[in-house]
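Field reference: sequence -> structure
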Amino acid sequence: MHNASPVNSSAVPPAVAIIGGGVIGLSLGWRLAQAGCRVTLVERNPETGRGASWAAAGMLAGGIEAEPTEEPLFALARWSQSLWPDFAAELEAASGLPTGYDATGTLVCAFTRDQAEKLRHGIAFQRGLGGVFEWLGAADAREREPGLAPSLVAAAFSPNDHQVDNRLVAAALAEAFRRAGGRLIAGIEASVDLAGGRAVGIVAGDARHPADLTVIAAGAWSRTVPGLSAAHRPPTRPIKGQMLALMMPPGAPLIRHTVWGGQCYLVPRADGRLLIGATVEERGFDATITAGGLLGLLDDAWRTLPGIEDLPIHETWAGFRPGSPDDQPMLGPSGIDGLLVATGHHRNGILLTPATAAAMAELILTGRVSPHIEPFGIARFEKATS
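Structure field:
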């Protein structure tokens, strides 16, 4: 058993060090700085928000991605989804920057009878957990999105599955964090500073940054953060995802909704980009863009939305989702006194940003573990192997 409660018994807000400058680390840092904490955040890259936060599609898909055995994750996702409208508005006001929040909703398409049956089954499960969906015949779906392929059999409309522009969100969070008084250090790798078996801050380069509490929020790189023994490293792994963006004609988007095809998703942006993603690959930190990866995405995207054929390719990229042994987040005490983790969000990092920031800030400021994140303690992996 771990005896690593991070209770803040002082009336003075604690000093907090955060390792990782993606949306998870930045949002937590912002919330803590707002609460009066002295927060130092260190990001290994020269710029913040350039890891999974940059590579994501920004879908707030709390409904359509729910799967059996993930009921607690679905509950956390729905809570976070409900926080997003106010979170985006507050973030825009605090930073003076846009987030690209778009409440148009999501269409999930079926192009064969088998796909339609699978979609019906999935929706029945998700409705049982409180998800909201509208079943659409092919004609009704094409009325909403006329560019969908003629082979469309049926679709489901999820009105609550929205999107943000994740790159804009990351930039806004960095600015809001700075404006709230947070200290941001980029381009240096930080290690956990241990003394007497307790985390007492971080070391970044030649500088030591003492802290009452330290948080590892380094995404797929969390396992590689220096200073920890093998037994105490968060068990993250990189899950590679290749994506690309096409450019739609100005003022004439091919689609308005986020659209899920058979094996891909298409996300329209206000600036005319059409994002297509994403592969799921166990390749370590290999960021190579492959012909096979792009071919698979483009083929399915074309079968979903044939009008993409003549669009120019705007950008290709690969990113690394932070996986965990069960592909669900690791939130809370780490097993080392004074050290917390907020990582392992896999495909849900953008969606879970407001909830993670709120629950982890509550833990740091009060010592209470929110019921929302209680199922996601890192100690569950010890139980699984003991």
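Note: The domain at 15-60+167-235+325-385 is CATH 3.50.50.60 (FAD/NAD(P)-binding domain).
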